[in-house]
Each structure stands twice: as C-alpha cells, then as structure tokens.
C-alpha cells in the first residue's frame, strides 16, 4: 500500500512536533509538501525539515493531485476557510484545534465535511493517547464511585511575546481558543453527557482578548466541572476527577509524553500509575491514517468539534467577551 501523502498549509512552529517528526516514524505516511504565502519562507522551511516540495500559496498545494491529505496549522481564524478549501480540493484534513473561529463556522464546515466522504479531524491529540483512555477506564470501573466533579487546567506564559499571533483578536486568538479548548474537550471526554457552561470569568491581556479564563460547568447528572486556562501564568497542567469513593489526579493529561503520573486515592488506599511516554502526536497520526485507509471513526471529527466550539462560545458570552470571528480575506 502506498503511503498517505500529506501537505502542510503553513510554515508553522507546531508542525514539526505535531506532524513532521511523527510522520518520519510512521511507515504509512510521508510529508511531501509545505506551502507558505512567501515562497522563500516555504523553501527554507522545506529544506530545514527535509520536505521535498515547497509552494508559494496554499491554493497551489491544494491543486496538486499528488497530495492526499493536508494538515492545517494556520492561525485560528483561518482554520475554517482552509478546511473548506481543502475539502473542495478533495483532500482529507487534519485541522489544528480549535476547529473554527466559533460554533456557527464549525457547523458550516461540519455540514460540508459530512457530505464529502473525506476524513476531517480536529487535532486533539491527547484524546488518542492512553492517558485519556486510562482515565475513562478508571471512571467506568467504578473505582471512584459516582463522579461528583472533574477539574482540568492548562496554562503557560507568553506575556513577553506581545506580537504572537495567539494574542491577535483578528486571528481569533485568546487563551481559551489556544489552550482552554483542551480542558473543555477533556471534560466532554470524561463526563457523563454534554456539560453546560454555568459561569466564566476572564482576565484580558488586551481589550477583548483573554489572557486567562476560569469556566464553571455542570453535567446532566449534576456533577460539576471547572476548566481553567492561561497564557500569562507559569506552566501547569492537571486533571482531577473526584468521586464518591475517591479521586484521580493526572499530572500531564495533555502532554503525557513529557512524563505522566496518575495518583488514585480511595478508601482502600493510594496507588500510582503511568502510561506510555510515546508522543500523543504519533497516536493521533495513526488514528488519522486508520480513518483514511479503513474508515475507522475518530473521536474528534467535524461534528464533535461543533460541540466543543459551542462550549467555547458560551464561555466567552458568560465572561462578557465577544465571540471570535473568522479572519477576513
């Protein structure tokens, strides 16, 4: 079987660890091209990462019939536009999170994806790693008893990078979009039923752009949750699941390849466990290939992204901030 040939839409910093390096270790894939708006930038990036071909526009790459799929690591406000363009070009799509600028755009993309017959997947890489299935298995086992609360946090600091695109309102930036989507999606994975936003508070880094946010949620069975995020605090991440008979704390629920540990404390004592340190991105790429080759369902498809984007929109409303909007052409 021939390898899945993947092109990258954008000479992005995330692409080497999210796709290019995992693809080198995956016998079923190869990254064959990269596009940037500046051909010199594309050529330099291609040379640095041993990518055979470079294009001076995204449209040029999408028109190439020798490319089967694309990875979209562009700024948030461009995700919807280029996912739609990729579908129109009959390419499978692995789109960075968040899937779109807001839920309305996500719905438009999901509707097109549903009729396309193509794989369109949001890149929540941690969902495909055993770090997530370990937590869902513990919950399902009943070891913790009925779940009362789920709390997750993901924070880091880029306060010294005021020109970073993640701070750009025009590019649909903000801490919730960039990093808070991870805790929200994890709560959806771990809870019973879809949560709803109860309240949210934000600290603005610049007007209407959140530097940090704390979101309170409630599940249909009455369990509660919090999702916290920041791009202005020291690095931290965790997930805590509290049940009637005990708790589970995950030290690295989003980047377990950097080291991970679970501490499970119940009425019978405390145990410590861990899972593989293999990259989450390797698991994600295998899931993407399986979906393309065999039709294996993915947990972060386009329709799933609508639910996550709806929570993001609701959190912005609750915090008194405007919804993010697609970047204008």
CATH topology term of the largest domain = Dihydrodipicolinate Reductase, domain 2
Annotated CATH architecture of the largest domain: 2-Layer Sandwich
Major beta-sheet overview: 8 strands, mixed
Structural class: alpha/beta
Could you tell me the number of beta strands?
Answer: 14
Give the number of helices: 9
Q: Note the run of SSEs as H and E.
A: EHEHEHEHEHEHEHEEEEEEEHH
Provide structural commentary.
The protein has 329 residues and is α/β, with parallel strands linked by helices. The chain has 2 domains: 4-122, 3-Layer(aba) Sandwich (Rossmann fold); 126-282 and 309-319, 2-Layer Sandwich (Dihydrodipicolinate Reductase, domain 2). 33% of the residues lie in helices and 28% in strands. It is built from 9 helices and 14 strands. The chain has helices spanning 15-24, 39-48, 58-62, 79-88, 103-114, 130-141, 175-190, 280-294, 302-319; strands spanning 4-9, 29-35, 53-55, 69-72, 92-95, 120-122, 147-157, 196-206, 209-218, 224-230, 232-243, 246-250, 262-266, 269-273. Helix 7 (175-190) crosses helix 9. The radius of gyration is 20 Å and the shape is globular. The two termini are 39 Å apart. 51% of the residues are buried. One of its GO terms (molecular function) is nucleotide binding.
Spell out the key features of this protein:
about 325 residues, alpha/beta, Rossmann fold, Dihydrodipicolinate Reductase, domain 2, 2 domains, eight-stranded mixed sheet, six-stranded parallel sheet, 9 helices, Putative dehydrogenase, Gfo/Idh/MocA_domain, nucleotide binding, NAD(P)-bd_dom_sf, oxidoreductase
């Amino acid at each position: 079987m021939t390898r899945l040939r993947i092109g990258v839409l954008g000479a992005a910093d995330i692409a080497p660890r999210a796709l290019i390096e995992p693809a080198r270790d995956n016998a079923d894939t190869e990254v064959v091209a990269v596009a940037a708006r500046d051909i010199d930038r594309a050529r330099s990036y291609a040379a640095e990462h041993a990518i055979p071909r470079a294009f001076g526009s995204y449209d040029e790459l999408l028109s190439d019939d020798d490319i089967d799929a694309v990875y979209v690591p562009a700024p948030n406000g461009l995700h919807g536009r280029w996912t739609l363009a990729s579908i129109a070009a009959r390419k499978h799509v692995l789109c960075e999170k968040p899937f779109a600028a807001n839920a309305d755009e996500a719905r438009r993309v999901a509707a097109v994806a549903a009729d396309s017959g193509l794989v369109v997947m949001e890149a929540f890489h941690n969902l495909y790693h055993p770090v997530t299935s370990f937590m869902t298995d513990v919950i399902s086992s009943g070891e913790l008893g009925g779940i009362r609360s789920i709390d997750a946090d993901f924070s880091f600091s880029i306060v010294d990078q005021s020109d970073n695109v993640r701070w750009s309102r025009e590019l649909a930036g903000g801490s919730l979009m960039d990093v808070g989507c991870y805790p929200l999606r994890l709560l959806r994975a771990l809870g019973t039923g879809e949560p709803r936003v109860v309240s949210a508070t934000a600290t603005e880094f610049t007007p209407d752009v959140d530097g940090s946010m704390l979101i309170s949620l409630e599940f249909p069975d009455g369990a509660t949750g919090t999702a916290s995020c920041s791009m202005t605090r020291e690095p931290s991440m965790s997930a805590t699941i509290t049940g009637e008979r005990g708790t589970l704390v995950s030290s690295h629920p989003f980047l377990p390849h950097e080291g991970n540990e679970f501490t499970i404390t119940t009425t019978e004592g405390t145990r410590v466990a861990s899972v593989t340190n293999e990259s989450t991105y390797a698991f994600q790429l295998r899931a993407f290939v399986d979906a393309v080759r065999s039709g294996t369902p993915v947990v972060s498809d386009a329709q799933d992204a609508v639910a996550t984007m709806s929570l993001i929109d609701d959190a912005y409303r609750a915090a008194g901030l405007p919804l993010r909007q697609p970047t204008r052409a």
